[in-house]
Structure formats: structure tokens, C-alpha cells
Design brief:
Elements (H helix, E strand, L loop, with lengths): L1 E2 L2 E4 L3 H13 L5 E5 L11 H5 L5 H4 L4 H6 L3 E4 L3 E5 L4 E4 L4 E3 L2 E4 L3 E3 L12 E2 L4 H11 L4 E5 L3 H12 L3 E6 L11 H13 L2 E5 L3 E5 L2 E4 L4 E3 L2 E4 L3 E3 L15 E3 L10 E3 L4 E5 L4 E3 L4 H15 L11 E6 L2 E7 L8 E7 L4 E8 L2 E8 L5 H9 L8 H5 L6 H5 L1
Parallel strand pairs: 1-7, 2-3, 2-8, 3-4, 8-20, 10-17, 11-12, 11-17, 12-13, 19-21
Antiparallel strand pairs: 5-6, 6-7, 9-18, 14-15, 15-16, 21-22, 23-24, 24-27, 25-26, 26-27
Helix pairs in contact: 1-8
The structure holds flavin-adenine dinucleotide (FAD).
Flavin-adenine dinucleotide binds next to helix 1, strand 3, helix 2, helix 6 and helix 8.
């Protein structure tokens, strides 16, 4: 059995940042990262630019093996964790390796939702989560002229954009009747739709793929689209099966408090896999973006070395889809207490929805209104009471910074 003071499951941005933070604070404590991918840290955020030939492959990597050696961090890449014995503090990986720990971080992220489609083999579907997926997409694009994308996620949009840049005819099958039905209103969705159409993307709403025949996708309602490459972007599921029988509380993700500590002493969680108590919105949240995973890795690392630190962060995800800048800020889930305030003018393609609860801003979607992102983030973070200010929020000529200063 290998013995470590700190074990980190997951070699992504959350796990790596936690390891680096621990090493800064505890120069001697033995520390290992276990990751089932073969590689040191690379940027998933750069993968779209890699498949578009904007960034070369080597620039996608953010660390090399030497880096970990210099920091005295042991790495076990290509090592899949299978289970955790939280009573005896042991992590079991495939091939029956055992790692004992004093403190453990679970930062195992997510994996793509896979689809089974009649008439096409799994290896002919292009998912987009890892650098291996990106390599495969690049290879397949070489001989492709027509591409179909399934889904309407950020990743689906990234795929559509990459295929289009490669001069392919692109179609998208989208299950709902608009983009992000639970988040976007019709006006927001229309801005994206109009812009995608301008870029010759064929959109098929309320359509799901039924089968593939002779390189032609046939939807449940009978729509047809011929393709050489089939991209899939239908969301992710969290990697937490190995923790299921460990006694660690799990809901949609690994449950953790505002210090990112789970219900079990000495076990923490960070990044896409954690469902943590967010002191800003006062509810459990899962974020799923790079800056949040970085920050959570840092905070988990601090807490693991005994520096008690609250995770307080307004989540933000941003994509530029064919020139249209879309941002989701904070909590964009709607419930019966959510008041949605519309700001801007959809006809100018500058438009936001502001989500308020109990008179306070909790989240926002923005289209081409990025210049207000900082102020909205502050309004959410500072929980400023905006009751009685709705008219000002609606008026895009009113400067939001006045609500923060006054
Ligand atoms: C193509 C793409 C583009 C993106 N673009 C953006 C963007 O523009 N902006 C943004 O904010 N976010 C973006 N994201 C999301 C962002 O990359 C993620 O939120 C972030 O990488 C999550 O980091 P993480 O460390 O929590 O998880 P991950 O990066 O998923 O790392 C977790 C690691 O743990 C490994 N693991 C899982 N299970 C086990 C196990 N049992 N044993 C060992 N190891 C295991 C996983 O394989 C993985 O290597 C993008 C994601 C993708 C895929």
C-alpha cells in the first residue's frame, strides 16, 4: 500500500490547483494525484480552438511531468479509482492498488452523456470532453463535408462552430423548441437562432435522432440530414460512482458544505463534481465551469491544510457563438419565487435577463452585454437589495454601477 498525507482524485484544473495550493502551504507533506486520463493538466477551454486550428496541440497543455516532479507531487496518470474505504482511509484503484490518505479530495469532474443510436457505432460518434476526443474530431474532419450536431449545449455550439469553420454544411438536431428552454426566454433564443441561420447552420428544433441509414440521420419526426461526421453535445454526468458506497453523501454531485468539506471528516470535493453550499444564494449549487473549478480547487486545498476558507464565488460561463457573446452568471435556475427582469433590446442583439429572488439579484443571462458583467457580478455577490429598483434594471441606459455605489 502507498501511504500519502494528501490524495487527490482527478487531475483536472480543480485537482491540480488543490495540489499546488497544498504544496505552497505544506512543503513536506506527501501528496499524490490519481487521474484516469493519461495526461498532465491540459485546458479543456482551449480544446475548441485546438480543433479549429487556432491553437496548436502542445499549447493546450498547461503542465508537464517535470512540473509535478519539481513540486514533489507524485502523479498516477491512467489510474482509475474504483472505491474508497472511508473508515480505514484507503482509496482503491483498478488493478487493486491501494493508497492510504490522511486527507482526500474528490475532484473527478464529469463525463459526457453517451448515446446509443441505431445504425451507427459508438466509435463513429464524436463527443467533446477530452483531448483524445479533440484528436479524433480533428482526424474525422479531414474527410468530412457535412456535419450533424446533436444537442444545444455550449459544447454542441462549439462543435457546430468548428465544423462550420472547416467549411462544412452543418445541421443541428435540438430536442427542445428553443435554446436552453429552462433558462432562455424566446427573445434570447431567437437572437442565437437568427445568427446561426445567418451562418448557414440548419436548425431542427423539437427533433431527436431516431436512427442512421446510409450516412443519413433520420429524426423521430422524419426530418433527414446527411452527414460525414456526427457530433454529440447532450450534457455531462458527474463521475461519482466510486464514492457511492463509501458513506459520502451524494445528491446530484458530491455534497459538501461552504468549506467544500463532505459529511466525512478529512474528505473534500471541488470542481464540476461538487454540489456545495453556496453562501451567496443560500442553496446547494453545481457550477461546471473552469474559473469555478480553479477557485474551488484553491479553497479545498486551503481547507485541507487547515486554513479554514469559505467558498464564495459568483459562477460565470461565457461562449462566443459565431460572434454572439453569451454569458450565464450566478444562479440561472428559475423557480416560483424568481422574478425575471428584461434589460436591453433583442432587436439590437443586446439583451439580458436578470433573475431576482426576494428583491436580490441571483443570476443573469447576457447576450452581447458583457460590459455589464462585472457590475452584475457585484450586485449578486453583495446581495444588494434591489426592491423598488426594477424600473432602473429594465432601463439599459441606466448605469448599473450607480446601484452599487449608492
Ligand atoms: C470542450 C470544452 C470546452 C469548455 N469551455 C469552457 C469555457 O469556455 N469556459 C468555462 O468556464 N468552462 C469551459 N468548459 C468546462 C470546464 O472545462 C470544466 O468546468 C472544468 O474543466 C472542470 O474541471 P474539473 O477539474 O472539475 O473536472 P475535469 O476537468 O473533468 O477533471 C476531472 C478529472 O478526473 C478524472 N476522473 C474521473 N473519474 C475518475 C476516477 N474514477 N479515477 C481517476 N480519475 C478520474 C477525469 O477523467 C478528469 O481527468 C469546457 C469544457 C469542455 C469539455
Amino acid at each position: 500500500m502507498k501511504k500519502y498525507k494528501y490524495i487527490i482524485i482527478g487531475s483536472g484544473i480543480a485537482g491540480t490547483t488543490a495540489a499546488e495550493t497544498i504544496r505552497e502551504k505544506d512543503k513536506k507533506g506527501s501528496l499524490a494525484i490519481l487521474g484516469n486520463e493519461k495526461y498532465p493538466l491540459y485546458s479543456r477551454v482551449l480544446l475548441p480552438n485546438y480543433i479549429k486550428d487556432i491553437v496548436p496541440r502542445e499549447k493546450v497543455f498547461l503542465r508537464d511531468e517535470n512540473f509535478y516532479r519539481q513540486k514533489n507531487i507524485d502523479t498516477f496518470f491512467g489510474c482509475e479509482v474504483k472505491s474508497i474505504d472511508t473508515k480505514n482511509k484507503i482509496v482503491f484503484s483498478e488493478n487493486e492498488y491501494e493508497f492510504s490518505y490522511e486527507k482526500l479530495l474528490i475532484a473527478s469532474g464529469g463525463r459526457v452523456n453517451k448515446m446509443q443510436i441505431e445504425g451507427i457505432d459508438d466509435e463513429d460518434l464524436c463527443y467533446f470532453q477530452t483531448i483524445d476526443d479533440a484528436d479524433k474530431i480533428k482526424e474525422k474532419m479531414k474527410n468530412s463535408k457535412k456535419a450533424l450536431v446533436l444537442g444545444s449545449s455550449f459544447i454542441a455550439l462549439e462543435l457546430a462552430q468548428a465544423f462550420s469553420k472547416n467549411k462544412m454544411k452543418v445541421g443541428m438536431f435540438i430536442r427542445g423548441d428553443r435554446f436552453w428552454k429552462n433558462i432562455f426566454d424566446q427573445e434570447s433564443s431567437n437572437i442565437l437562432v437568427d445568427n446561426l441561420k445567418k451562418h448557414d447552420i440548419s436548425l431542427f428544433f423539437k427533433e431527436e435522432i431516431k436512427k442512421v441509414k446510409d450516412k443519413k440521420a433520420i429524426s423521430k419526426n422524419g426530418a433527414e440530414f446527411e452527414f460525414d461526421i456526427l457530433g454529440v453535445g447532450v450534457g455531462i454526468k458527474r463521475n461519482l460512482e466510486f464514492a457511492e458506497k463509501s458513506g459520502i453523501k451524494i445528491k446530484n454531485g458530491i455534497l459538501a458544505d461552504q468549506y467544500l468539506k463532505t459529511n466525512i471528516d478529512d474528505i473534500y470535493s471541488a470542481g464540476d463534481v461538487v454540489e456545495f453550499y453556496d453562501v451567496i444564494t443560500e442553496k446547494y449549487q453545481m457550477f461546471g465551469n473552469w474559473p469555478a473549478a480553479f477557485l474551488q480547487g484553491k479553497i479545498a486545498g486551503l481547507n485541507m491544510v487547515g486554513e479554514k476558507t469559505v467558498c464564495r464565488h459568483v459562477s460565470g460561463y461565457n461562449i462566443i457563438s459565431f460572434g454572439v457573446n453569451v454569458s450565464f452568471l450566478g444562479d440561472v435556475t428559475k423557480d416560483e419565487n424568481t422574478v425575471v427582469v428584461k434589460r436591453g433590446d433583442p432587436s439590437t442583439q443586446e439583451y439580458s435577463q436578470l433573475f431576482l429572488r426576494d428583491g436580490k439579484l441571483v443570476g443573469a443571462t447576457q447576450i452581447n452585454m458583457n460590459k455589464e458583467k462585472g457590475f452584475l457580478t457585484m450586485l449578486i455577490d453583495k446581495k444588494i437589495d434591489l426592491s423598488g429598483k426594477i424600473d432602473k434594471l429594465k432601463d439599459s441606459n441606466f448605469e448599473l454601477k450607480k446601484l452599487i455605489i449608492n
